[in-house]
Write a structure and sequence with these properties.
The chain is mainly alpha-helical. The chain folds into 3 domains: 43 residues; 96 residues, Type II secretion system (T2SS), domain F (Receptor-associated Protein); 232 residues, Receptor-associated Protein, CATH 1.20.81.30. It has 16 helices and 3 strands. Strands 2-1-3 form a 3-stranded antiparallel β-sheet. Helix 3 runs antiparallel to helix 8 and helix 7 packs antiparallel against helix 8.
Length: 406
């Protein structure tokens, strides 16, 4: 079935509808005759049908982003709610998407469903775009006959999680930007500006201040070894990211250090709790058993410290421990979150309580990121001012010294 879907090609067609109006578009199909038959079934008389030509340079296929999957989820949920048949919904979404990669993926999913497969099975053929959590929720919707409702919940879940990711990226961007901009400006001054003063100081005829000598030595170092300095920094960053990706121990250590950073660590903790609550709430609402749901929740945590803790919570819950007790023993969740879960367990409304927790912490993250942005804007100016001002003062100290002697 997957092989059949993989053989689909994109065809460009022109035809006439029932009113006689000429229309055109693109559609996926295994061959020319099947595409024509499919168009006729839709009430379109095909006039011209041909394979979509490939560019001489090859079609540029961009990586499908999580944001595009979130938009796809909302489009599919909206069309299902409007009563559009599933296969036709895929046709409309695929045909109207600008991304070639998204077009091909959606049309392949359409081919799988048309061939008799379930939507969950079709999505599992694309694990990079649709994680086990997404597929499990779709499967639960198909089994319970509530696919339309579940697709709406999935769309909301994807939108909320992508919004949280965007806020985290924004929070991490500012400190990174401060460091990068400060380093680049300092390097430019040391390589191009300071040497002009050095030529002036050669005929100074007196001992230079210690700060000036230090800056001149740094300038000479950057002028001679700038390629090694930039290369070493780039290599160190690349090596650290590769080590984080390949080694679970380094990844765990890196994640633990991030959570302990001032300000940033607090934002990351709140964001992870919000993601945990949102994911578990969505799984509960879909009727997924708790122990099974915790596996998907752990995978969606986004931080290895929380991932390991959630898996331990799952093990405790599987032996009969209450969820709130297992969460309290992990010592990662604030008392308010634990108490909300405890109330939810007693009232039989865990999904609603977790949804409220997610809403609260998502708002907390939003406020914290805005506060961080407001704090860092003047901080960036202060850091750049100190760096540039320090270099300027170091260069003008000898001139001031010469003026005092005269």
């Amino acid at each position: 079935m997957a092989q059949a879907a993989a053989k689909q090609q994109i065809f460009i067609w022109e035809g006439a509808n029932r009113q006689g109006h000429k229309i055109k578009g693109e559609v996926g199909g295994k061959n020319l005759s099947m595409v024509k038959a499919d168009l006729r079934r839709q009430g379109i008389v095909p006039l011209k049908v041909r394979k979509k030509p490939k560019s001489l340079l090859g079609q540029r296929k961009k990586k499908i982003t999580p944001k595009e999957i979130a938009i796809f989820s909302r489009q599919l949920a909206t069309m299902m709610a409007a009563g559009v048949p599933l296969v036709q919904a895929f046709e409309i979404i695929g045909r109207g998407h600008e991304s070639i990669s998204m077009q091909e993926m959606v049309l392949k999913i359409k081919g799988e469903v048309e061939g008799g497969g379930t939507l969950a099975e079709a999505l599992k053929q694309h694990p990079r775009q649709f994680d086990p959590l997404f597929c499990n929720l779709v499967h639960a919707g198909e089994q319970s006959g509530t696919l339309e409702t579940l697709l709406d919940k999935i769309a909301m879940y994807k939108e909320k999680t992508e919004a949280i990711k965007g806020k985290i990226k924004k929070a991490l961007f500012y400190p990174t930007a401060v460091v990068v901009v400060a380093f680049i400006i300092t390097a430019i001054l040391l390589i191009f500006v300071i040497p002009q003063f050095e030529a002036l100081f050669q005929n100074f005829g007196a001992d230079l201040p210690a700060l000036t000598l230090l800056v001149l030595k740094l300038s000479a170092l950057f002028q001679e070894w700038w390629w090694a300095i930039f290369g070493a920094m780039g290599g160190a960053i690349y090596g650290l990211m590769e080590a984080k990706r390949r080694s679970q121990k380094i990844n765990h250590l890196f994640d633990r250090l991030l959570l302990k950073l001032p300000v940033i660590g607090e934002i990351l903790n709140k964001a992870t709790i919000a993601r945990y609550a949102r994911t578990l709430s969505t799984m509960f609402a879909a009727g997924v058993p708790l122990v099974e749901a915790m596996v998907s929740v752990a995978g969606a945590a986004g931080n290895s410290v929380y991932t390991q803790a959630i898996l331990r919570i799952r093990d405790e819950v599987s032996t009969g421990t209450q969820l709130q007790a297992a969460m309290r023993s992990s010592q990662l969740f604030p008392n308010m979150v634990v108490q909300m879960v405890a109330i939810g367990e007693e009232a039989g409304s865990i999904d609603q309580m977790l949804s409220k927790v997610a809403d609260f912490y998502e708002e907390e993250v939003d406020n914290a990121v805005d506060a961080l942005s407001s704090l860092l804007e003047p901080l960036i100016m202060a850091i750049l001012g100190v760096l540039v001002g320090g270099l300027v003062i170091a260069m003008y100290l000898p001139i001031f010294k010469m003026g005092s002697v005269v």
